[in-house]
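tool=predict chain=A
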Amino acid sequence: MSAQALSVENVRIELGAFALRDVSLGVDPGEILVLLGANGAGKSVILETIAGFHRPSHGRVRIGARDVTSLPPEARHVGYVFQNFALFPHLSVAQNVRFATQARGRAGVERPAGERRIAALLERFGLTRLADRRPADLSGGEKQRVALARALATDPVVFLFDEPFSALDAATRDTLRDELADFLRDARVPAVYVTHDYAEAMALADRVAVVDGGTLVQEGPAERVFAAPRTERIARLIGVENIVEGRVRTVNAATAVVALGATEFRVSLQDRVATPGQRVSVSIRAEELSLLPAGQAAPAREIAVPATVLRLAGHGPLVRVGCDCGFPLTAYVTRAQCRQMALAPGGALTVAFPSEALNLLVA
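tool=predict ok
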């Protein structure tokens, strides 16, 4: 018996000019795996293949110990939440949720318990007062709450989410995402979640699989993937803003000394190969950077680099700060920090960050 709740093994599938090529991934019990990539990368095709909407030409899909590769969607016991809600317009909120249990052949079985479960789900997602309304009378956020409740009503063994919040406004999206994350972690049911929004992926994922051109290009614990993308392409796909060109000065077994502008930094090689004189790129996430007054010492075990403010730009509740450190870096501060430091173009400051935030990218 497989220890994984879900496994996709060397799956290949062709859909017209598009193809998935040897995709393999796994989800442990209670884990949230996020498929992250640009539009058209193949994320939804992977999800649809897990659900049974596509039959692979090669490879297997297993849910727990069951090989479900040849089974139709209704036999796989998965919950699927679509981007476009997919509610029945002629049914009320409660009827939409109840229909899911009826479609699974559970109507009439322990009906009082089933009705209590439906009532609990409506309450859990703030839908009790809307139980008799039809989808046309609901907001986008309310429709998505109904879709979530309906998917959960069937007690699926795996949840599949295809960019469920992409059509919602930012405030509603953030609230629903947090509620969903809390629910999934409480329920301990594994989930696969598709998004092209790296901020959403960071908020939800236990593990991340980056998809590009029908191929899985990097997969691992979310913190690890976001901190250490392997290539410049992957770094850009997961939203890394700081990708700086440099040159390798020296190399030993575990680290390389890399010159970025006129400043040299020791960068962990991890599993990568570099040679003296080689031109390379180094990534560092903007959220790893701290901005300090000019001349102020950095915290213990952090690197301090003198810099000049190039530009300031509003970014929601934050301010995006472009810095010249002899090489370009972008950081974010709160508006309060921006005022307190009197940041302005041409002003001097110090940029600080931990050395492990520097990540060597391979070609």
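The longest strand covers residues 302-315. Residues 170-187 form the longest helix (18 residues).
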